[in-house]
Amino acid sequence: MVPNGFNDGEEQVADQEMRELLIEYMGNGFLENIIALFKTDATLYRFVGDLMGAENIRVRLGATALIEELARDRREELKMSVPGLIMLLGHENPTIRGDAASALGMIKDRSAETALRERLGDEHPGVREAAREALLELTDR
What we know:
Blueprint: H1 8-27, H2 31-40, H3 48-52, H4 57-73, H5 75-78, H6 82-88, H7 94-107, H8 113-118, H9 125-139
């Protein structure tokens, strides 16, 4: 049993339901509601990568706006989203790779530095540029 009372299977189902709910709400334009939700529940930061990697462009744009807003006064909590964003640097879609690099630059977590440096050799010029800019953000604290 895990501490929150869920077993692993139940926790995975709950995570999947939350992921789907956040993507649906973001897709429907409820950005302000999602920002408020994230500000009250830091456990949600682990879903930022799911939002950023969604197929729906509206969800991805909303995720970028969410990160911009949370980076103002919730940067430490936002660092919980870094592992998911780093995973997106390997996504097949270059737009998602570039957006993930930009998001990592906004968060300014040095743990992303190695992964961003690897993207400097990306096949897509936009991704290389986003990685370069993100690395500059990491050093411009």
